[in-house]
Amino acid sequence: MLSLVIRRLPRLCQQLLPQAPPSSILRSLRAYAQLADNVSRSSSNAADFVRNTVKPLDSRKTFLIDRYAYIIRNRPLMVFVQHNNLLKSDSQQIRNQFKKIGVAFTVLRVNLFNVALRNSSHPDPASLEAQQMYRGVRHPLKDLLAGPTAVVSFDDVDPQQLKSVVDVVEKSGGRLLLLGAWLDERLLDREEVGVVKNLGTLDQLRSGLLGVLEVLRGAGLANTLSSASTSLYLTLEGRKKQLSGDDDAESA
User: Fold this and answer.
1) C-alpha radius of gyration, the chain, whole number
2) Closest to 117 (Cα-Cα) out of 152, 65, 74, 189
3) Residue 143 Rama label (left phi>0; alpha psi -120 to 50; beta)
4) Which stretch of DSSP H or E encloses residue 146?
5) Measuring CA to CA, which residue among 76, 23, 43 is closest to residue 184?
6) Going by C-beta distance under 8 Å and a sequence separation of 6 or more, which residues neighbour residue 186?
7) pLDDT at 16 over 80
8) How many helices (H) and strands (E) does the chain have?
9) Residue 43 in 3-state DSSP?
10) What is the domain partition of the chain in residue ranges?
11) Are strands 104-107 and 149-154 parallel, antiparallel or unpaired?
Protein backbone atom coordinates (compact mmCIF):
# COMPACT_ATOMS: atom_id res chain seq x y z
CA MET A 1 0.00 0.00 0.00
CA LEU A 2 2.80 2.41 0.93
CA SER A 3 4.67 1.73 -2.29
CA LEU A 4 1.46 2.40 -4.27
CA VAL A 5 1.05 5.81 -2.62
CA ILE A 6 4.71 6.68 -3.26
CA ARG A 7 4.43 5.73 -6.93
CA ARG A 8 1.47 8.13 -7.29
CA LEU A 9 3.21 11.08 -5.60
CA PRO A 10 4.32 12.85 -8.82
CA ARG A 11 0.79 12.79 -10.29
CA LEU A 12 -0.80 13.82 -6.98
CA CYS A 13 1.53 16.81 -6.76
CA GLN A 14 0.54 17.95 -10.24
CA GLN A 15 -3.16 17.58 -9.43
CA LEU A 16 -3.18 19.21 -5.98
CA LEU A 17 -0.72 22.07 -6.33
CA PRO A 18 -2.12 25.29 -7.87
CA GLN A 19 1.04 25.76 -9.85
CA ALA A 20 3.02 23.03 -11.55
CA PRO A 21 5.94 22.01 -9.31
CA PRO A 22 9.44 22.50 -10.67
CA SER A 23 10.64 19.73 -12.98
CA SER A 24 13.54 18.95 -10.61
CA ILE A 25 11.06 18.09 -7.84
CA LEU A 26 9.08 15.87 -10.18
CA ARG A 27 12.24 14.06 -11.26
CA SER A 28 13.20 13.48 -7.62
CA LEU A 29 9.73 12.19 -6.79
CA ARG A 30 9.75 9.83 -9.79
CA ALA A 31 13.20 8.51 -8.83
CA TYR A 32 12.09 7.96 -5.24
CA ALA A 33 8.95 6.20 -6.44
CA GLN A 34 11.02 3.89 -8.67
CA LEU A 35 13.39 3.07 -5.80
CA ALA A 36 10.47 2.29 -3.49
CA ASP A 37 8.95 0.07 -6.15
CA ASN A 38 12.22 -1.87 -6.57
CA VAL A 39 12.58 -2.37 -2.81
CA SER A 40 8.99 -3.52 -2.58
CA ARG A 41 9.47 -6.05 -5.36
CA SER A 42 12.73 -7.34 -3.80
CA SER A 43 11.03 -7.83 -0.45
CA SER A 44 8.17 -9.62 -2.12
CA ASN A 45 10.57 -11.91 -4.00
CA ALA A 46 12.47 -12.72 -0.79
CA ALA A 47 9.24 -13.55 0.99
CA ASP A 48 8.09 -15.76 -1.89
CA PHE A 49 11.48 -17.49 -2.31
CA VAL A 50 11.22 -21.26 -2.55
CA ARG A 51 14.26 -23.54 -2.52
CA ASN A 52 14.55 -25.58 -5.69
CA THR A 53 16.02 -28.74 -4.15
CA VAL A 54 16.71 -32.01 -5.93
CA LYS A 55 14.60 -33.89 -3.42
CA PRO A 56 11.50 -32.49 -1.68
CA LEU A 57 12.30 -29.79 0.84
CA ASP A 58 10.86 -31.78 3.74
CA SER A 59 12.57 -35.03 2.73
CA ARG A 60 15.13 -36.84 4.87
CA LYS A 61 17.77 -36.54 2.13
CA THR A 62 17.49 -32.75 1.91
CA PHE A 63 17.65 -32.51 5.71
CA LEU A 64 20.82 -34.61 5.86
CA ILE A 65 22.57 -32.69 3.07
CA ASP A 66 21.78 -29.43 4.90
CA ARG A 67 23.10 -30.89 8.15
CA TYR A 68 26.30 -32.21 6.56
CA ALA A 69 26.90 -28.90 4.76
CA TYR A 70 26.64 -27.10 8.11
CA ILE A 71 29.27 -29.40 9.65
CA ILE A 72 31.61 -28.99 6.67
CA ARG A 73 31.37 -25.19 6.72
CA ASN A 74 31.49 -24.59 10.47
CA ARG A 75 33.83 -27.23 11.93
CA PRO A 76 37.57 -26.49 11.52
CA LEU A 77 38.57 -30.09 12.26
CA MET A 78 36.81 -33.30 11.25
CA VAL A 79 38.09 -36.79 12.06
CA PHE A 80 36.71 -39.68 10.02
CA VAL A 81 36.38 -43.19 11.42
CA GLN A 82 35.07 -46.44 10.06
CA HIS A 83 32.50 -48.07 12.33
CA ASN A 84 32.16 -51.84 12.35
CA ASN A 85 29.21 -53.85 13.65
CA LEU A 86 27.94 -51.10 15.92
CA LEU A 87 24.84 -52.03 17.86
CA LYS A 88 22.48 -49.25 18.90
CA SER A 89 23.73 -49.52 22.49
CA ASP A 90 27.36 -49.39 21.28
CA SER A 91 26.66 -46.32 19.18
CA GLN A 92 25.07 -44.50 22.12
CA GLN A 93 27.94 -45.42 24.44
CA ILE A 94 30.55 -44.14 21.97
CA ARG A 95 28.50 -41.01 21.34
CA ASN A 96 28.44 -40.29 25.08
CA GLN A 97 32.22 -40.75 25.33
CA PHE A 98 32.79 -38.22 22.58
CA LYS A 99 30.26 -35.85 24.13
CA LYS A 100 32.27 -35.83 27.38
CA ILE A 101 35.34 -34.81 25.37
CA GLY A 102 33.37 -31.93 23.82
CA VAL A 103 33.06 -33.22 20.25
CA ALA A 104 30.17 -34.55 18.17
CA PHE A 105 29.91 -38.06 16.70
CA THR A 106 27.76 -38.37 13.57
CA VAL A 107 27.16 -41.57 11.61
CA LEU A 108 27.11 -40.64 7.92
CA ARG A 109 25.15 -41.62 4.89
CA VAL A 110 28.27 -41.48 2.75
CA ASN A 111 26.58 -40.82 -0.60
CA LEU A 112 24.76 -37.77 0.79
CA PHE A 113 27.86 -36.53 2.63
CA ASN A 114 29.72 -36.68 -0.68
CA VAL A 115 26.97 -34.54 -2.24
CA ALA A 116 27.38 -31.96 0.54
CA LEU A 117 31.18 -32.02 0.07
CA ARG A 118 30.99 -31.62 -3.69
CA ASN A 119 28.45 -28.79 -3.53
CA SER A 120 29.72 -27.06 -0.38
CA SER A 121 30.81 -23.93 -2.30
CA HIS A 122 27.22 -23.33 -3.41
CA PRO A 123 24.84 -21.35 -1.14
CA ASP A 124 22.37 -24.24 -1.30
CA PRO A 125 24.21 -27.59 -1.67
CA ALA A 126 20.91 -29.49 -1.85
CA SER A 127 19.64 -27.47 -4.81
CA LEU A 128 19.17 -28.59 -8.39
CA GLU A 129 21.44 -25.73 -9.51
CA ALA A 130 24.27 -26.97 -7.26
CA GLN A 131 23.89 -30.48 -8.63
CA GLN A 132 24.19 -29.20 -12.20
CA MET A 133 27.07 -26.78 -11.47
CA TYR A 134 29.29 -29.24 -9.59
CA ARG A 135 28.47 -32.43 -11.43
CA GLY A 136 31.72 -34.34 -11.96
CA VAL A 137 33.67 -32.44 -9.27
CA ARG A 138 35.68 -34.80 -7.07
CA HIS A 139 36.44 -33.73 -3.51
CA PRO A 140 39.78 -34.87 -1.96
CA LEU A 141 37.88 -36.61 0.85
CA LYS A 142 35.85 -38.83 -1.46
CA ASP A 143 38.43 -41.65 -1.59
CA LEU A 144 38.59 -41.70 2.21
CA LEU A 145 34.86 -42.19 2.62
CA ALA A 146 34.16 -45.79 1.68
CA GLY A 147 32.02 -48.19 3.65
CA PRO A 148 30.36 -47.44 7.00
CA THR A 149 31.79 -44.08 8.07
CA ALA A 150 31.25 -41.59 10.88
CA VAL A 151 32.65 -38.10 11.46
CA VAL A 152 33.87 -36.63 14.74
CA SER A 153 33.56 -32.85 14.44
CA PHE A 154 35.37 -30.25 16.59
CA ASP A 155 34.33 -26.71 17.47
CA ASP A 156 38.01 -25.70 17.72
CA VAL A 157 41.37 -27.16 16.78
CA ASP A 158 42.56 -28.54 20.12
CA PRO A 159 45.37 -31.16 20.04
CA GLN A 160 44.39 -32.38 23.51
CA GLN A 161 40.82 -33.07 22.38
CA LEU A 162 42.15 -34.81 19.29
CA LYS A 163 44.36 -37.02 21.45
CA SER A 164 41.34 -37.97 23.58
CA VAL A 165 39.34 -38.82 20.45
CA VAL A 166 42.12 -41.03 19.10
CA ASP A 167 42.31 -42.77 22.50
CA VAL A 168 38.59 -43.58 22.33
CA VAL A 169 39.02 -44.98 18.81
CA GLU A 170 42.03 -47.10 19.79
CA LYS A 171 40.23 -48.49 22.87
CA SER A 172 37.01 -49.31 21.00
CA GLY A 173 38.00 -52.94 20.51
CA GLY A 174 37.98 -52.71 16.73
CA ARG A 175 34.52 -51.16 16.54
CA LEU A 176 36.09 -47.91 15.30
CA LEU A 177 39.01 -47.49 12.90
CA LEU A 178 40.76 -44.17 12.30
CA LEU A 179 40.72 -43.23 8.60
CA GLY A 180 42.09 -39.68 8.57
CA ALA A 181 41.11 -36.08 9.17
CA TRP A 182 40.28 -32.82 7.42
CA LEU A 183 42.08 -29.79 8.87
CA ASP A 184 42.33 -26.32 7.38
CA GLU A 185 41.22 -27.51 3.92
CA ARG A 186 43.85 -30.25 4.01
CA LEU A 187 43.55 -34.03 4.17
CA LEU A 188 45.57 -35.68 6.97
CA ASP A 189 46.45 -39.37 6.99
CA ARG A 190 46.72 -41.42 10.19
CA GLU A 191 50.38 -40.55 10.76
CA GLU A 192 49.73 -36.83 10.38
CA VAL A 193 46.81 -37.07 12.80
CA GLY A 194 49.26 -38.63 15.28
CA VAL A 195 51.64 -35.70 14.85
CA VAL A 196 48.90 -33.12 15.46
CA LYS A 197 47.52 -34.88 18.55
CA ASN A 198 50.99 -34.91 20.16
CA LEU A 199 51.51 -31.16 19.82
CA GLY A 200 50.25 -30.67 23.38
CA THR A 201 47.68 -28.23 24.70
CA LEU A 202 47.42 -24.67 23.45
CA ASP A 203 48.80 -23.43 26.79
CA GLN A 204 51.79 -25.75 26.41
CA LEU A 205 52.38 -24.51 22.88
CA ARG A 206 52.25 -20.89 24.06
CA SER A 207 54.60 -21.68 26.95
CA GLY A 208 57.04 -23.43 24.63
CA LEU A 209 56.98 -20.53 22.20
CA LEU A 210 57.65 -18.04 25.00
CA GLY A 211 60.57 -20.20 26.17
CA VAL A 212 62.08 -20.20 22.70
CA LEU A 213 61.67 -16.43 22.46
CA GLU A 214 63.35 -15.98 25.84
CA VAL A 215 66.29 -18.12 24.75
CA LEU A 216 66.61 -16.23 21.49
CA ARG A 217 66.33 -12.92 23.31
CA GLY A 218 69.01 -13.98 25.80
CA ALA A 219 71.32 -15.20 23.05
CA GLY A 220 70.84 -11.94 21.19
CA LEU A 221 71.71 -9.92 24.29
CA ALA A 222 74.81 -12.03 24.98
CA ASN A 223 75.97 -11.62 21.39
CA THR A 224 75.40 -7.88 21.59
CA LEU A 225 77.37 -7.58 24.85
CA SER A 226 80.15 -9.79 23.51
CA SER A 227 80.34 -7.78 20.31
CA ALA A 228 80.45 -4.49 22.22
CA SER A 229 83.22 -5.75 24.55
CA THR A 230 85.30 -7.03 21.65
CA SER A 231 84.92 -3.76 19.78
CA LEU A 232 85.94 -1.75 22.86
CA TYR A 233 88.98 -3.97 23.43
CA LEU A 234 90.16 -3.61 19.84
CA THR A 235 89.69 0.16 19.99
CA LEU A 236 91.69 0.49 23.22
CA GLU A 237 94.40 -1.86 21.96
CA GLY A 238 94.74 0.14 18.77
CA ARG A 239 94.97 3.38 20.71
CA LYS A 240 97.63 1.86 22.99
CA LYS A 241 99.78 0.86 20.04
CA GLN A 242 99.33 4.30 18.51
CA LEU A 243 100.52 6.03 21.70
CA SER A 244 103.41 3.61 22.01
CA GLY A 245 104.46 4.46 18.47
CA ASP A 246 104.35 8.19 19.23
CA ASP A 247 106.58 7.73 22.29
CA ASP A 248 109.15 5.77 20.27
CA ALA A 249 109.21 8.51 17.66
CA GLU A 250 109.87 11.23 20.27
CA SER A 251 112.70 9.21 21.84
CA ALA A 252 114.39 8.89 18.48
Assistant:
1) 36
2) 65
3) alpha
4) none
5) 76
6) none
7) no
8) 10, 5
9) helix
10) 2-47, 60-200, 201-252
11) antiparallel
pTM to 2 decimal places: 0.63
**CATH class of the 60-200 domain in this structure:** alpha beta
One-letter amino acid at 76 equals: P
169 against 48, higher pLDDT: 169
- What φ, ψ does residue 179 adopt, rounded to 5°? -100, -40
Angle subtended by helix axes 159-170 and 190-197, to nearest 10: 130
Three-state DSSP state, 244: helix
Grouping H, G, I as helix, E, B as strand and the rest as coil, residue 174 is coil
Model confidence over 191-237: pLDDT tens digits?
Answer: 999 999 998 766 676 676 667 667 666 655 556 555 655 565 566 66
The helix, strand and coil proportions of the chain, stated in percent and rounded to the nearest 5, come to 60, 10, 25
Q: Is the pLDDT of residue 245 over 90?
A: no
pLDDT, tens digit, for every residue of 47-86?
Answer: 456 899 999 999 999 999 999 999 999 999 999 999 987 8
Give the span between the Cα atoms of 7 and 23, in whole angstroms: 16
Angle formed at CA 94 by CA 93 and CA 96, multiple of 5 degrees? 65
Cα separation of 23 and 27, whole Å?
A: 6
Helix (H) or strand (E) holding 149: strand 149-154
Q: Return the DSSP state at 85.
A: S
Strand (E) positions, 88-167?
104-107, 149-154
Query: What is the pLDDT, as a whole number, of residue 224?
Result: 55
Residue pair 166/113 in contact (Cβ under 8 Å)? The answer is no
Report, as an integer, the average pLDDT of 115-139. Answer: 94
